[in-house]
């Protein structure tokens, strides 16, 4: 049987947060579901989920958006991992990252949470930080704006022009990570843009 991968986009629930920087991980899940003509349905683990395949005959993908707020994402993620019997090394967490410039992304497995409370809660709930992460850059706020406010702001108009490309790149990175492994995905997606 093909490996099952749980792909989780972190964010906050509800229309108030839908278009904010903190929800870029959930936007990537929407793109992955759209590519597969899937819609997300409610799951008892406290998330919306779509089950699909990377490609015919490939790995099974469980695409998920927790219904919880960002800082308590761990419960739904660990619940889904248990339900689908997915080990931490196949739980891919897609999230926003302040320390990466907008329109860039980085992939890694394990490490610290970098002050990201959603990642911290997932690591705590899974009992390990050793899970793959697709970190979508949102950049630091300008001037003295509090990062906590910045992440809850919608993307600016110039950013919105580029956002679909950034989301598409992150979705590509998830697919490549599952298909070819971390190193191949890093080599492609860590390169500076031409």
Automatic annotation (TrEMBL):
TRNA binds at residues 17, 69, 71, 117. Keywords: Cytoplasm, Hydrolase, RNA-binding, tRNA-binding. It is found in: Cytoplasm. It is an enzyme of class 3 (hydrolase). GO terms for biological process: protein quality control for misfolded or incompletely synthesized proteins; rescue of stalled ribosome. The active site is at 22 (proton acceptor). It catalyses: an N-acyl-L-alpha-aminoacyl-tRNA + H2O = an N-acyl-L-amino acid + a tRNA + H(+). It holds the Pfam family Pept_tRNA_hydro. PROSITE patterns: PEPT_TRNA_HYDROL_1, PEPT_TRNA_HYDROL_2. Coiled coil: none annotated. Monomer. PANTHER family: PEPTIDYL-TRNA HYDROLASE. Belongs to the PTH family. This is Peptidyl-tRNA hydrolase. It comes from Microbacterium oleivorans.
């Amino acid at each position: 049987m093909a490996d099952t991968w749980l792909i989780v986009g972190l964010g906050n629930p509800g229309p108030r947060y839908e278009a904010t920087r903190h929800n870029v991980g959930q936007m990537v899940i929407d793109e992955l579901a759209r590519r597969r003509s899937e819609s997300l349905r409610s799951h008892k683990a406290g998330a919306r989920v779509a089950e699909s395949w990377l490609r015919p005959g490939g790995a099974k993908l469980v695409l998920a958006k927790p219904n919880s707020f960002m800082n308590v994402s761990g419960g739904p993620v660990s619940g889904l991992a248990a339900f689908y019997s997915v080990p931490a090394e196949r739980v891919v967490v897609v999230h926003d990252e302040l320390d990466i410039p907008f329109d860039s992304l980085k992939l890694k497995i394990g490490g610290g949470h970098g002050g990201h409370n959603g990642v911290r809660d997932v690591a705590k709930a899974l009992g390990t930080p050793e899970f793959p992460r697709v970190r979508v850059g949102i950049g630091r706020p300008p001037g003295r704006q509090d990062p906590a406010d910045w992440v809850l702001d919608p993307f600016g108009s110039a950013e919105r022009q580029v956002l679909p490309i950034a989301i598409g790149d992150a979705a590509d990175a998830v697919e490549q990570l599952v298909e070819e492994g971390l190193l191949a995905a890093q080599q492609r997606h860590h390169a500076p843009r031409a």
